[in-house]
């Protein structure tokens, strides 16, 4: 693995999951692998789990971390080539990325999509500019189209909690008051396609994700039907992909409730967090025994540490 900006960059999922499991049982086993190495964490958007779990993962490997909120602390960056920089953008990504890469051995970036220009978002231009202008490995901490560290923690969690060889996993859309990105569901879908699971996506008509991502996966517009026999319910809102970035449904009947969970095979409830209570899921489900969102968030550390371990080992070759 050279970079980890997409689930597609995983070379061997079983090997990566075994590494994550071994790290979880002995987090300090490679305490000096990152000695004298620096991880740069750059945020263009808010974060709680991603920032803290990745910093913790780096610390477990003996790495130094430098973290910056680029939106409110850095110069505003220009990403277009060949422009006359006489506006509000102070620094070009060409210089910024090259300079940062001299300070860091690995760079990790969070940059959400604007959700107004589909073509621009699909290029994931912020993260890919860093890949283009730096020579060090780049990790996505959620880009415009993927959140691959989240998906790795998700499959690690499913493996831990599954009670049968091939569990039924359902990704369900749920309503939300804000327009949210497609990154989390995209990476989750890709991960489920790699994993040995019976996978169903359910969402209202018109809320199809990128067909390039979902091709080959089962899609149902009947949430109750999809929930039947499920072992895992993964709830997530995303904005409309066809009518790009718009909220075309806030249908409260798609919220995950106790009644719906009763249709499942005692399914575990998952969500990447942060979650809107009584919008996405009821208090009763989130506070109930079926919810595994807290251990799921804990696995973010081991997912990040597994990826950092592979990138550091590659760099030492
Ligand atoms: C982000 C998303 O991609 O859906 C990050 C998830 C890890 N979620 C949000 O922006 C939620 C914001 C809110 O106000 O609920």
Q: How would you describe this structure to a colleague?
A:
With 317 residues, the protein is of the alpha/beta class. The protein folds into 2 domains: 7-146 and 300-315, Aspartate/ornithine carbamoyltransferase (Rossmann fold), CATH 3.40.50.1370; 149-297, Rossmann fold (3-Layer(aba) Sandwich). The protein has 13 helices and 11 strands. The protein has helices at residues 13-25, 49-60, 70-73, 93-103, 118-122, 125-133, 148-161, 183-194, 211-214, 223-227, 258-261, 283-287, 293-316; strands spanning 38-43, 64-69, 77-78, 91-92, 106-110, 138-140, 168-173, 198-202, 218-220, 232-236, 268-270. A 5-stranded parallel β-sheet has the order 9-8-7-10-11. A 4-stranded parallel β-sheet has the order 2-1-5-6, sandwiched between helices. Helix 11 (258-261) links the parallel strand 10 and strand 11 (268-270). Helix 7 packs across helix 8. The mean pLDDT is 97. The structure holds N-(3-carboxypropanoyl)-L-norvaline (SN0). N-(3-carboxypropanoyl)-L-norvaline binds at residues 142, 178, 180-181, 183-184, 272, 274, 276. N-(3-carboxypropanoyl)-L-norvaline (SN0) binds at residues 142, 178, 180-181, 183-184, 272, 274, 276.
Radius of gyration: 20 Å
At CATH level 3, the topology of the largest domain is Rossmann fold
Q: Using the 3D structure, state the CATH architecture of the largest domain.
A: 3-Layer(aba) Sandwich
Instruction: Tell me the number of strands.
Output: 11
Q: How much of the sequence is in beta strands?
A: 5-15%
Bound molecules: N-(3-carboxypropanoyl)-L-norvaline
């Amino acid at each position: 693995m050279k970079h980890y900006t997409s689930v597609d960059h995983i070379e061997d999922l079983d090997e990566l999951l075994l590494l994550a499991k071994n790290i979880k049982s002995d987090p300090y086993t490679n305490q000096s692998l990152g000695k004298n190495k620096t991880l740069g964490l750059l945020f263009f958007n808010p974060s709680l789990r991603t920032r803290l779990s990745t910093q913790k993962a780096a610390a477990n490997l003996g790495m130094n971390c430098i973290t910056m909120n680029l939106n409110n602390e850095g110069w505003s960056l220009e990403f277009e080539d060949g422009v006359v920089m006489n506006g509000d953008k102070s620094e070009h990504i060409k210089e910024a990325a090259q300079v940062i890469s001299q300070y860091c051995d690995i760079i990790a970036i969070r940059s959400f999509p604007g959700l107004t220009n589909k073509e621009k978002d699909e290029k994931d231009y912020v993260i890919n500019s860093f890949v283009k202008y730096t020579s060090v490995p780049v990790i996505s901490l959620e880009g415009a189209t993927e959140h691959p560290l989240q998906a790795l923690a998700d499959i690690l969690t499913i493996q831990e909690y599954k009670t049968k060889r091939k569990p039924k996993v359902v990704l369900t859309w749920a309503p939300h008051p804000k327009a949210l990105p497609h990154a989390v569901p995209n990476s989750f879908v890709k991960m489920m396609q790699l994993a040995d699971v019976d996978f169903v996506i359910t969402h209202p008509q018109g809320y199809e994700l990128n067909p390039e991502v979902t091709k080959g996966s089962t899609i149902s517009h009947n949430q109750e039907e999809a929930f039947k026999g499920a072992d895992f319910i993964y709830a997530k809102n995303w904005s409309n992909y066809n009518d790009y970035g718009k909220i075309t449904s806030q249908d409260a009947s798609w919220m995950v409730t106790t009644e719906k969970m009763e249709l499942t095979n005692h399914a575990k409830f998952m969500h990447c967090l942060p979650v809107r209570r009584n919008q996405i899921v009821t208090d009763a489900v989130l506070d109930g025994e079926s919810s595994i969102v807290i251990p799921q968030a804990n696995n973010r550390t081991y997912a990040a540490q597994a990826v950092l371990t592979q990138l550091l080992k590659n760099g030492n070759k």
